Amino acid sequence: MYEPLVKFCGNRSLSDVEKTASSSATHLGFIFVNKTKRYVRPEQVGRWISRVRPKQKLVGVFVDPSIDQLDEVLAFAPLDVIQLHGNETVSEVLKIKESFGLPVWKVIHHQANGGEQMDLFQGVADGYVIDSKVDGAYGGTGIQFDWDAIQSYKEMASDQNVSCFIAGGIKPENIDQLMTHEPEGIDVSSGIETNEQKDINKIQAVMKEVGHHVASFSGR
C-alpha cells in the first residue's frame, strides 16, 4: 500500500509544534543552523517536546556540524534522525553515525550530478532529501525544482533501500501535482506557513491532498 512519509520542517515555536504534531505527519523537523530564520536553540526544542510529546519522529537539520555541536543539541533534543544539508563528506557522515548511532539523511541539491552524489553516499546515508539548488542557500527557499526528475531519484534511493523525500516549494496549491509523481516522502516548511508561523489550515490542506491520493492509489 502506498503511504508517503510526511515531514513538516522548520518548527520554531511551541505553537508550531502543537499544530504540526496534531497532524498525521510522520516526521517533525527543527533547524539547528545559526543565522537562518528558522533557527531554534536546542533547549527550546527540548521544552516544546516535553510539553507536546509528539508521536512523530524528530529530525534535526544541520549544515556541516561538528561532533560537539551535535552533542550539545542531542543533550536537549531527543532527535531520531540527523539531516545534513551542507558539504559533508562520506567520512564525516560515517563519523557522525558512529558517534551517535542515529540514522543520517543527506540532502542532495537537484542538479546534473545529483545522481552521482547519491552514488557517493550509497551504503552510508540512511535516506535522502532532494531539494532545489539555489545559489547562496542550503535550503528553506520555497523554490520548486523540476519534478520530472523525481522518478530517477526514487529509483536510485530504492536501489539503495533507503527513503527519499522531496523538498522545495511544496504547498497546498501544488501538492496535487507533486503526488502524481508518487514520492516516497514529502518535506514541507514554508508551504505550511502564514506570516512565518505554521498555519493549521495549510497543514490540513496538505494532509487532505495526501490522503486523497493514497485513497485513489489504493483503489486502482
From TrEMBL:
What catalytic activity is recorded? Answer: N-(5-phospho-beta-D-ribosyl)anthranilate = 1-(2-carboxyphenylamino)-1-deoxy-D-ribulose 5-phosphate
Chain segments annotated as coiled-coil in the UniProt record: none
Alphabetical list of Pfam families matching this protein: PRAI
Q: Does the keyword Transferase apply?
A: no
Q: Which domain of life is it from?
A: Bacteria
Q: Top EC class per UniProt? A: isomerase
HAMAP family cross-referenced by the UniProt entry: PRAI
What does the sequence similarity comment in the record state about its family?
Belongs to the TrpF family.
Q: What is this protein called?
A: N-(5'-phosphoribosyl)anthranilate isomerase
The top of its lineage is: Bacteria, Bacillati, Bacillota, Bacilli, Bacillales
